[in-house]
Specification:
3-stranded antiparallel β-sheet, alpha+beta, 24% helix, 18% strand
Length: 76
């Protein structure tokens, strides 16, 4: 398992900006990777780079505290 694996990553369509925005709440404040396509791939690269930079600098990795939330399926 890579050091970056525990961090939640997701991409959400931002209607106001007409863009896909990538998020990794445990490592970055706000959204990053404003891209029409390949936003998730770009987000994963940035997460891997951030973790590598922290490790290279001898800094501790933040706890991976954000967990995905699933909306329950409502019965009709």
């Amino acid at each position: 398992m890579k050091a970056s694996d525990p961090y939640l990553r997701f991409v959400r369509w931002e209607e106001a900006n007409a863009l896909s925005v990538g998020y990794c709440p445990d490592l970055f404040v706000g959204g990053i990777c404003h891209a029409e396509s390949e936003a998730y791939r770009q987000l994963c690269e940035l997460v891997n780079e951030e973790v590598a930079d922290l490790l290279a600098a001898g800094r501790p990795l933040p706890l991976a505290a954000t967990q995905p939330v699933r909306q329950p399926e409502l019965a009709a």
